Amino acid sequence: MVLEHEILPYFQWLWSGGAGSIGALPRFLLVALGLGLLGLMLGYVIAAARHGLLRGGDIVYRTITNGVRELFETSPRRVMALAGLAMKEAWRRRVVVALVVFFIILIFASWFLKKNHQDPAKLYISFVLTATTYLVLGIALLLSAFSLPNDFKTKTIYTIVTKPVRLGEIVLGRILGFTAVGTILLAIMGVCSYVFVNRSLDHTHGIDEVSLKNVTDADGANIGKDGRTTLENYHRHDVELDTNGDGFALGNFGHTHKIVQRGGKGMVLGADGIMRARVPQWGKLTFLDRQGVPKERGISVGSEWTYRSFVDGSTQATAIWTFDKISEALNSEEEGGLPIGLIVRVFRTHKGTIGKAITGSIQVRNPETGLTSDLIPFAALDAKIDERAIPRKLTGTDNSELDLYKDLVSSNGQLEIRVQCLERGQYFGFAQPDMYIRMRDASPMVNYVKVCLSIWVQMVIVIAIGVAASTLLSGPVAMLFTVSFIVLGFFRPFFVDVAQGPQYGGGPIESFYRLITQMNMISALEDSAVTRLIKGVDWVYESLMLSLAQVLPDFSKLSTVDFAAYGFNVPADLVFQNLTMCLAYVVGMSILGYFLFRTREVAR
Amino acid sequence: MSEDIVIQTRALSKVYRDFWGRQKVRALKPLDLEIQRGEVFGLLGPNGSGKTTTIKLILGLLFPTEGEAIVFGKRSTDVSKNERIGYLPEESYLYRFLNAEETLDFYGRLFDMPAETRRERVDALIKMVGLDKARKRQLQEYSKGMTRRIGLAQALINDPELILLDEPTSGLDPIGTREMKDMILRLKGEGKTVVMCSHLLADVQDVCDRIAILHQGELKELGRVDTLLTVADVTQIRARNLSPECQTEIRDCISRHQGELIEMDNPSTTLEELFLSIVRDSEARPGRRANVEPVTSDT
């Protein structure tokens, strides 16, 4: 699974943030302060232009003091009444159509979703959750952007604002009402999609009796049978049976089957682990280059996406993960050691034998004493999650016997795991989350609910933005505004990159200048008044983009669909971060909506 | 401001501007008004004279260009004044997917009324406006008159001290019009202040204590209805059962005193009175009306 940003512990994220950034709360306060001052200045300029300097100041002062007073006069009963009205309005506007569309998608989805995919669960989960996300966001957008403008159009707003209703209550009531409707829709979609994925992928196999062969131990005693299952859903499993005939169909295609004896024959039960919620404990990744010199990153193999960097085969190049808090408590008796997960991107400079894995090695090292285990070879298949265990009993580089927890874990609980590629001319690519200590799996159902919660968070943010925009803008314009927010939000990292990253060809004005003068992107512009002006305008433009980026919701970060699709547990820290972001947007947009509403004459 | 003054406007004016701030129309020229507690006040004028603009400015639905409107001692933009106000807009702008009960319950909740009070109030108002049998029907199924009545009920949900009625008889049949006027007089009897605007002069004359006449956004006349309508140099005598001889004697008497007899004949009733008497009669005795009898003053 790709995890481009480290998930910080909640309180660190909230107060201090990660390296090179500030905490979410100080950032929120700074942005709120900046926007507040900007709004104040803008409000005063407009009021002063219309009513004169003194009266303009009086209007701005009264708007702010009234706003603060009305905040304390907010009545839950009125808010709930308005929320109830928004819900009734939403049902009247046939939001259930979204459910019909969703069911149609589910009905026909199985025509297009292939079960012969390497990891069908990933395909199915990714599809249904993405469809749910887009449908729910679409409904949230339509409801929130058109509701208030429709009230203005039909003038029903007259009978609301002539009651002792605070404008903030109207904004909040709308947000809560549409959130309630969206929550009901999302809950139905979530339950249906969960059942759909499980029912679609559940299957069983028979045992291919011809393939079964006896397995004997070193003394020649029969200890069971090996074989394989019949072909179902485009795949078959290897089978291991004990002497009683019980056993497992092993974990290919992301799941296993239990095999039990029924009526003297082996019976393969339903699939286990189609949906998983692996709980990883991530470490810190550093590299050694081909000469064994420590580096922060491996080498680039020319890929534009710099998420992973590579170690070259049959050199000293090594990827080193350092894990904290390693203790015997993590040991798995079943697997006979420390369970880990490893994802390797294999980059081949020559194709070798097609389908044959590239050999790599794992070494375990005590970062305190330098004691290192001997190489543990493994076969790396590109992008597959390799779940294995580091054996508790290991051999050292000097052939001494080592205990993983006693000898290789430092006194402060640290452990280094080093991975190398052993084949010349081949490369292994890694990012920090590509190796993890596997904790006990969490409940897939609870994990699914957490993913739905992240969709809910996105929905609430869209509703809050839509309602705030609709207090001032007409329905279609409010919708366009909200859509712009969503689109920019989905591509926020790119947007920020454009604003502050290195750019070939300069900003928009410089690029345009280069286009019309047929100048390439690399050559420096000549130094003249015109080019200085162009660069100046671009600087202003980029500054505006950066400012806008501060209030854009990062939907790519908010979405946790990939966690469920790749079978990883959504960390609680991320859930709380998303919920906090949601709260911040609801608060911020309610305040913005209130003041925009106040500037508007209801009867115009 | 005196306790008895419910609404006060000071040089209240409104200019509508376009997006660029250019003046489009001056809807209301500086208006100074004081409306006393317990009176029925009428804003009169032809279409586009500024009546509705004045009401909207008083309610805070529009912002004044100059001057201010004070309601119960508070600025018109202060929402807390709405606790004591009921407003019936020109057309009943209500949520058509709600039924009568839901509508009134919703507006009751906006006044933060407890559930029990709301229930009682909703029930009483639905009966008062005669919609008991249609209380569960969605408003989209209502006729215009019924919509108007539920609109009035929502304006009274909070038992307001000040009721603003914009064209209250608009869209009502004669019976509805009469009921509306009776309702206004009943509210006055309960000590409430009513401000209504209308271009139907007869309605205003029937119920208003004082009127303001607006034209092209400007106040043209302000005063008590009876004072404004009194013709000082004409004396009106109304009598019943006078014989022709007696009528001749009265004519002679006027002549002896150098008076000018302008008119002396049998008065006609209003069409409204005639219509109402027919409907009342029809309700009492269903079927075709037998014959048309001359109207008497007892009718």
TrEMBL record, chain A:
The keyword NAD does not apply. PANTHER family: ABC TRANSPORTER PERMEASE (PTHR43471), SLL1107 PROTEIN (PTHR43471:SF10). The keyword Transmembrane applies. Keywords: Membrane, Transmembrane, Transmembrane helix. It comes from Bythopirellula polymerisocia. Signal peptide: none annotated. The chain crosses the membrane at residues 28-47, 95-113, 125-148, 175-197, 448-470, 477-495, 575-597. This is ABC-2 family transporter protein.
From TrEMBL, chain B:
Signal peptide: none annotated. Gene3D superfamilies: P-loop containing nucleotide triphosphate hydrolases. This is Putative ABC transporter ATP-binding protein YxlF. It comes from Bythopirellula polymerisocia. Pfam families: ABC_tran. It comes from the Bacteria. Residues 7-241 form the ABC transporter domain. Its EC number is 3.6.3.-. The gene is yxlF_2.
